[in-house]
Amino acid sequence: MLKNNNTKIMVTVALFVALIAIGAFMSIPVGPVSITLQTLFVMLSGFFLGKKAYLASIVYVLMGVIGIPIFSGFRGGLSSIYMPSFGFLIGMIFSALYISIMFEKVKNINFLKSLIIFITASVIIYLFGIPYMSYILNVYLGKGLSFSKILSIGMIVFIPGDILKCIVAANIVSRKQMKKYRIE
């Protein structure tokens, strides 16, 4: 039984790594950061993978850093750590972990509870992404952008899409039959 569970976990982690990568390829460039579907799949991994959710994001980031072109714009390699958007990728790891912890604690999962968890998880991604983007753009690239400009190009423009992704994810996971697919 344990072996089958480990196999199920490995296959599901691999599936979410692939989905996160596919989400990166579905991108709309908007300045230094692109609009992608990655965060939707990170949110869903947080629900379906349980405590192992962060593994999908870690594997995804490591695959990109070692050179597999799976980041937005088909980029990859060690130089990816100098992308203004790399902090958002780091934030996805912690976001998935947060989501998994919250869904373990929440009883009677419903749409509103799920939506609040996913919106908070999006904020976690921004907490890593915005400072990192500011550092890369202002210190590493010497752009001298104000914090309000960083917020404008790295967060404000993405809020409507992020809210929509949170609504979609909350709608999926709040359905009664979805709980049986969650790995505990």
Automatic annotation (TrEMBL):
Its main location: membrane. It comes from Helcococcus ovis. The keyword Transmembrane helix applies. Belongs to the BioY family. Keywords: Cell membrane, Membrane, Transmembrane, Transmembrane helix, Transport. The chain crosses the membrane at residues 9-27, 33-50, 57-75, 81-103, 115-138, 150-173. GO terms for molecular function: biotin transmembrane transporter activity. It comes from the Bacteria. GO terms for cellular component: plasma membrane. This is Biotin transporter. It holds the Pfam family BioY. It is found in: Cell membrane. It is a multi-pass membrane protein.
